[in-house]
Amino acid sequence: MKNIKIIYLLVLLLSISSCKRYNVEENKDNTELIAQETKINKQEAQKIFNSKVNLTPLSEAGKYNISIPDNYMYQVTVYEEGNIDLVFGKIDFANRKDVVAIELTTALFPRERLCSQSVYVIKEENPNLISIPEIKKQLVKENYIYFEDSNSIIYGENFTVIHYEYDAAAKSYIIYNGEIDHFAKFPEKENLALHMLKNGKNLLKKDFIKVPFNSWEEYVLNSPKAEINLFSSIFNKLDKEMQAFLEPNQYVSPRSEGNYDYVTFYRANDAIERTYLNFLNAVKTNTIESFEIPEKISKDFEKIFFSYRYSLANKYSYSQIDNVTDLKITDSGYNNRVFEKLICKVQYDGKIFYLTTNEISDLTRDFYIKMFNYYSKNKTLDIPAIKK
Q1: Of 12, 167, 176, which is closest to residue 103 (Cα–Cα)?
Q2: Which of 178, 201, 224 is the C-terminal boundary of a domain?
Q3: Terminal CA-to-CA distance of the chain, rounded, Å?
């Protein structure tokens, strides 16, 4: 009997110290969700809201004027009346003309779909048509809410994120609506949801100064853990190949959970290494017209370093950032389109490897350069001071 009482007491204490939950069952009309403890600590949330981010303006005269992270891509759609079925507070999108919808996607994972993020712009004179209590009555059917403030909420199994603001200057509602992919397999979804909410809270920020990220450590400390962990899981696979399995002239392109590849890791033989260094020297000394790739290695060499775009008719240039070579190829066969590849030399136990990007753009270049240089020096992406 004494043991039963102790167990009962432990269960009671655990229930009291559990996360914030809003019990719909206790209020079937859903007129007011009943709050207990909070799951997301507001102090920790504020740290994420204040974390470093570089923004870029996104605007179209008379339609919208917002700020988004500068490594994000976007797609704008304007919906005619009746073509979008959403309701926030007293605003029924179906009855509105020219609803502007802006879909946001991080350029690091354009196809991975860790989450969906959209911004809606509604022209409206009345600034009092939306409130979080109204949104809770309309949308929160699940029995838990993770975070809430005066104009934001994170709730539900898929960590739905809603944030709204009224832009008095443009007389418009700016509504951010995001959701973590239901099938996304990663921990720390609360962290990603808070970074998503940070995007929403920055939409109307105008007075910002871009400050470059100085290191991979800065990216790790200021990025969603889900994004960093995705790359870490890929590079952990490279560790095993580097230490044991990869033979000379072999390469691997490990795939993410979503079955996409981002980098290629190649173990060089002596002929490949010598030819690559000769190529860089030919570009540097402007003698590329006399550079020749030995026939025995030409197919492998072009595949690793040029993605089959090598030609004496092309123009080449490169810059060196520590161990990373930023190679640019102006392809005469593609109307002089410029292709870019980052190539990082990695040395381990007397062996030479090359780590290369599969895709690169202005939006992702700096992230990859910092990540590649850190890995080439440390043979890991982990930061010891913050490793759990």
Answers
A1: 176
A2: 201
A3: 41
Mark whether 192 and 287 lie in a shared domain: no
* Domain finish residue from 177, 201, 225: 201
**Cα–Cα distance between 137 and 150 in angstroms, integer?**
15
| Confidence at residue 387, expressed as pLDDT on a 0 to 100 scale | 53
**Residues in Cβ contact with 55 at an 8 Å cutoff, skipping those fewer than 6 apart:** 67, 68, 69, 70, 202, 205, 208, 210
Residues 227 and 193 in one domain: no
> What Rg value do the Cα atoms of the chain yield, rounded?
26
Q: Which regions of the chain are under pLDDT 70? A: 1-38, 143, 386-388
pLDDT digits (tens, 9 = 90+) for 144-159: 899 999 999 999 988 9
* Domain encompassing residue 320: 216-386
Positive/negative CA dihedral, 212, 218, 219, 225: negative
Q: Tell me: do 180 and 36 sit in the same domain.
A: yes
- Number of domains present in the structure of the chain: 2
| pLDDT at residue 4 in the model | 39
Strands of the sheet with 172-180, listed across from one edge: 72-79, 99-106, 115-123, 172-180, 160-167, 152-155, 145-149
Shared domain for 75 and 173, answered yes or no, is yes
Cα 66 to its chain centre, rounded Å, is: 19
Angle of CA points 359, 362, 366, to nearest 5°: 85
State how far the Cα of 121 lies from the Cα of 100, in Å rounded to an integer: 5
Distance of CA 175 to the CA centre of its chain: 20
Q: Are 337 and 327 in contact (CB under 8 A)?
A: no
One domain for residues 266 and 182: no
Q: Using an 8 Å Cβ cutoff, are 252 and 241 in contact?
A: yes
Say whether both 330 and 278 belong to one domain.
Answer: yes
Q: Do 50 and 81 share a domain, yes or no?
A: yes
Full-model pTM: 0.87
Residue 102 lies in a domain: yes
Q: Cβ distance 49 to 194 under 8 Å?
A: yes
Q: Can you tell me the distance from the alpha carbon of 245 to that of 252, in angstroms, rounded to the nearest whole number?
A: 10
272-291 burial, b at 16+ Cβ within 10 Å, e below that, comes to beebbeebbebbeeeeeeeb
Amino acid identity of residue 29, one-letter, is D
